[in-house]
Amino acid sequence: MASALFVSVFVSPPAFADHWVPWAFSWDKNGATQHHISPQQGLSRIKTTSLWSPDGELLVVQLVSSKSFKKTVELLDKDISSKSNPELIARYGTLLTYGAYMSEDEGEMAELATRADAYFDQALSKDKASWGAWLGKATLYGFSHERDQEASSIKILKSMIEAQQKTKSNWHHVYPYLVLGAIYEQKRDFLTAKEIWTEGLQHFPNNEALHTKMID
């Protein structure tokens, strides 16, 4: 399923493909990739850094852009066990999701997407309410040209936003707004995308990424 999904996404890239990671914060990707980080360092930092954060995004870009990225993936596979925390497993899936989006090789994209999906499923099998796993899965499928996958992603993200509004907001809760808006942006439904980002700003008025989306 994931293989077919990512072939359709990347063979026919969206009109705003220059946004290369469409939900990401605004920072200089070229500057981010100049700093080398080893797989061992990356694995250690992932355990203490949420990848759904500005610092986490920078960490992911550094790892994915490294010549040692395949080694990083190997270390992740070896590190996961039956005792692994579901949110940590979801972070590994998120890393591979970024890897798929940033890859220029169709086969590698499909492989990374398939692995990411398996990580998210593993996390959800341990905790059906895993926030990171649900957001990761929605992100993985949200930019598919397959309508059922896209619809599933939109449903998940809307449910996450609805649930978040009933609880105390955390800084990372901005991501469902960013991702959902980006999905509608790809659909060229710019009005709905702006409405979603505007709603996000009501809850996160100082968020740089949402402000940037509003002026793009």
Which structural category fits the helices and strands? Answer: mainly alpha
Strand content: under 5%
- Give start-end ranges of low-pLDDT stretches: 6-19
The H/E string reads HHHHHHHHHHHH
Q: How many separate helices?
A: 12
How large, in whole angstroms, is the Cα Rg? 16 Å
Helix content: 55-70%
Gross morphology is globular
What is the CA-CA span between the terminal residues?
33 Å
- What does the main sheet amount to? none
The total beta strand count reads 0
Average pLDDT, all residues: 84
Write a concise keyword list for the protein shown above.
mainly alpha, 216 residues
Structural write-up:
It is built from twelve helices and no strands. The protein has 216 residues and is an all-alpha fold. Helix 6 runs antiparallel to helix 7 and helix 11 (190-203) packs antiparallel against helix 12. The relative contact order is 0.12. The model is unreliable at 6-19 (pLDDT under 50).
Care to give the gist of this entry?
This protein has helices spanning 2-11, 29-32, 39-46, 54-65, 69-79, 86-102, 106-126, 131-142, 147-164, 175-186, 190-203, 208-215.
Topology readout:
Layout: H1 2-11, H2 29-32, H3 39-46, H4 54-65, H5 69-79, H6 86-102, H7 106-126, H8 131-142, H9 147-164, H10 175-186, H11 190-203, H12 208-215
Helix pairs in contact: 1-7, 3-4, 3-5, 4-6, 6-7, 6-8, 7-8, 8-9, 8-10, 9-10, 10-11, 11-12
